[in-house]
């Protein structure tokens, strides 16, 4: 696996480098945001994973994330942050981060986050023995009966199950569910309430100001 890391704490960066090299991964490490942008503009390297500290010199990790997502839509990006302020997390998920990890952390926690990011999921997502989602047919079934959804409801459920265990940002939901339709206000809450009323019990978790998720 080819990894790009930006972390201005040299000791932490060295530990992360060692962690990946022991696992036979290749890692390019940077300590300055400006250097990362220059590198990405000059080199045509397909990284499998980006790990970005938010607070780095010159160009911060969130701006680097935004830059990456202009061309790399599906590559996992893990944000490292010393803060859990709602504004920081909201911006990170709006810009398309896959997962985040809060400083200080140990390498076992990083490994757990990586397992979440790269865990291979089957088409069938089981919630309970009699409650599951089929990603191939976009059907949510309870006791062998398919729950009926309108188109936008179905798309909302689908994007959450495609990203099960992760927060899906409000902006990502709008892009996926409304498919480019321009509105002054997107009635996400109303949509979620309608879906919840159709479920046997609530499986949708609200991350206030950020988005929604279904626990994996």
TrEMBL record:
<dbReference type="InterPro" id="IPR001867">
    <property type="entry name" value="OmpR/PhoB-type_DNA-bd"/>
</dbReference>
<keyword id="KW-0597">Phosphoprotein</keyword>
<dbReference type="InterPro" id="IPR036388">
    <property type="entry name" value="WH-like_DNA-bd_sf"/>
</dbReference>
<dbReference type="Pfam" id="PF00486">
    <property type="entry name" value="Trans_reg_C"/>
</dbReference>
<dbReference type="InterPro" id="IPR039420">
    <property type="entry name" value="WalR-like"/>
</dbReference>
<protein>
    <submittedName>
        <fullName>Response regulator</fullName>
    </submittedName>
</protein>
<dbReference type="GO" id="GO:0032993">
    <property type="term" value="C:protein-DNA complex"/>
</dbReference>
<feature type="domain" description="OmpR/PhoB-type">
    <location>
        <begin position="122"/>
        <end position="216"/>
    </location>
</feature>
<keyword id="KW-0805">Transcription regulation</keyword>
<dbReference type="InterPro" id="IPR011006">
    <property type="entry name" value="CheY-like_superfamily"/>
</dbReference>
<dbReference type="GO" id="GO:0006355">
    <property type="term" value="P:regulation of DNA-templated transcription"/>
</dbReference>
<dbReference type="InterPro" id="IPR001789">
    <property type="entry name" value="Sig_transdc_resp-reg_receiver"/>
</dbReference>
<keyword id="KW-0238">DNA-binding</keyword>
<dbReference type="InterPro" id="IPR016032">
    <property type="entry name" value="Sig_transdc_resp-reg_C-effctor"/>
</dbReference>
<dbReference type="Pfam" id="PF00072">
    <property type="entry name" value="Response_reg"/>
</dbReference>
<feature type="domain" description="Response regulatory">
    <location>
        <begin position="2"/>
        <end position="118"/>
    </location>
</feature>
<dbReference type="GO" id="GO:0005829">
    <property type="term" value="C:cytosol"/>
</dbReference>
<keyword id="KW-0902">Two-component regulatory system</keyword>
<keyword id="KW-0804">Transcription</keyword>
<feature type="modified residue" description="4-aspartylphosphate">
    <location>
        <position position="53"/>
    </location>
</feature>
<dbReference type="GO" id="GO:0000976">
    <property type="term" value="F:transcription cis-regulatory region binding"/>
</dbReference>
<feature type="DNA-binding region" description="OmpR/PhoB-type">
    <location>
        <begin position="122"/>
        <end position="216"/>
    </location>
</feature>
<dbReference type="GO" id="GO:0000156">
    <property type="term" value="F:phosphorelay response regulator activity"/>
</dbReference>
